[in-house]
Amino acid sequence: MKIFNSLQFKISMVIVVPFIIMLIISNLFNIFSVNNVTKKLSYKVLEESAKGEAAKVESLVQEAFDSLNTFEYTINNLYQSGERNREVYKNTTKNFFETLPEGTGALFLIFKPNVMGNDVDYINDPNYSEAGGMFSDYVYRNNGTSADRGMTSEELKSDYYSVPVTTGNINITSIYDFEVGGKMVKMNTWSIPLKNKGEIIGVAGVDIFIESLAPIMDNINPFENTLTSLFDHNGTLLYNKENESYIGKNVYEAYPYYRDNNVLESIKAGQTVIFEDFSTSLNTKSAYIFVPIKLETGQNWGMKILVPNYVILEDSNNIRNIMIIILAVILVIVFIITPLIIKKKVVFIIKLLAQDLTKLSKGDISWDTPPGFTELKDEWGDIARAIKSILDNLNNVMNTVKESSEQVESAANEVLSGNNDLSNRTEMQASSLEETASTMNEMASNVKFAVSDIYDSTNMVVEAKDYVGKAGRIIEESVNKMDAVYEASSKIMDITKMIESIAFQTNILALNASVEAARAGEQGRGFAVVASEVRNLAQNTQESVKNITSLIVDSNDKINLAAASVNESKDIFNDIADRMDKVSDLMQKVNIAAKEQENGIGQINIAINEMDSSVQQNAALVEEASSSSQLLLNEAKNLNKLIDFFKLR
């Protein structure tokens, strides 16, 4: 099942399936069109073949009429020459009959009453007695020879005599049964009027054996398995290869479904009829074509040619089969070639792209696009160039971010170390101030309770002077440290601003990377997650830096206040130092100045307490700065860890 889930199979199906559907539809349309065209062409060929065969039959029928016309012409010449000898006419009829084909069963000649002028002389003649002496001669075949006789009164009442005499038109009778040589045969009679100077003087005619049409019709075989039929102007079947028992029946009686196609009416109108139907004789769907055969009488016989569809459509079926074979070959070629082309031109490249994007999802951006792909002029070239640009930009950005984060980490380490040192010194300063405060309290107590003891006071003054000098130095040192803290805080602010700028640029680059990853679709999802994490870290770093900056600004404000207080204390201590220098000179006035000294010591006490409070505040600020520095250091380390996820060039 793996092959069905492969990209090669899916892309091949996307291309091959619509192509196959269009190819099949096109071929079906072509096959249908070719079938229609070849069917029409085959039907046209069938129609022309049928018309050609009908023309042959018509020619043979016309030969029979020509023979009859020749006989009529010969008789008219005899009559017009004044010949009235009946034996001459009988011999002429017999001799002419012997020239006719075997299919002609009889030749007869009849003159109307008294046309010969001697009918009364033959009233008792056995050959003419039944006709009242009028001339009639019927020459027929009898066991391979010809014989003749006169015609009966009943025969003279038949259509083949009465119709030409009364209408002056050629007449062809319907089929009838007649005994010849002791057996019944089917025949019809063709007769034409004899005219002299426009007046009808008699009738000449022939009897045609219907079975004589069989050899002619049997030779009509334009296609394999062709069945033919022949019927006269009344629709009576003269020949029927399908079923000979239908001969003599009307076509509508034998084949009722012919009526649905108006076969007989169309033939009488001289029109060709073509239709398709299932043939029980051929046991298959077949083409029926009926063509008229024009007779000299102005009437039309009809000839049917029945051909199986599989015969007339054989070429069409062969073309269809060839087209199906070609289609199958094309389908096989498409199924084989298309996946190979897709594999070489698409899947192979996508596989390389997937491998490279997998590296990218794992943070490896040290690779480069495969050689030659960036020179391609198609979409693959565009993708390769875009990926190369992404890799170059990512490497540049990540290298820059890495360098910046390392600098931030180093600076944070320095700030943290400085803050820790400042914290320790601030604690020492606070301890010293506590000692100074305690000493000053003790000194105040001694001044208050030992004014009388000058020596002790002098010693205390000396001691106080020492402590004041020491406190002055501590205060001066505190001022210097505060200045250093302020300068370090300013540097921290510069560093945090640089970190904030880097975090902002990192955020923008991460956003751009997310957009490019989204454009890459499914393959860029892993990189999109990494880019999103980098962006979140950059935003957190930026927020933390803003908080640190705010804290440092607040710390600087407080340090400035503490510095002012310490400077003030320094001035006070300097003043105390000056005063203590004069104490030795003013010991004599100690009693007078004791009160003032007590007040001065009280002020010093207040100043030291205030200094102690400021130092405690400084210690708290230094602690906060240390905590912020530690947070900044941790964030910088986390950023470095995230950056270390990427394998750079």
Automatic annotation (TrEMBL):
One of its GO terms (cellular component) is membrane. The chain crosses the membrane at residues 12-32, 322-342. InterPro entries: HAMP_dom, MCP_chemotaxis, MCPsignal_dom. Residues 344-399 form the HAMP domain. Keywords: Chemotaxis, Membrane, Transducer, Transmembrane, Transmembrane helix. The keyword Transmembrane applies. Its main location: membrane. GO terms for biological process: chemotaxis; signal transduction. It holds the Pfam family MCP-like_PDC_1. It comes from the Bacteria. Residues 404-633 form the Methyl-accepting transducer domain. The keyword Membrane applies. It is found in: Membrane. Belongs to the methyl-accepting chemotaxis (MCP) protein family. This is Methyl-accepting chemotaxis protein. It comes from Brachyspira suanatina. The lineage of its organism: Bacteria, Pseudomonadati, Spirochaetota, Spirochaetia, Brachyspirales.
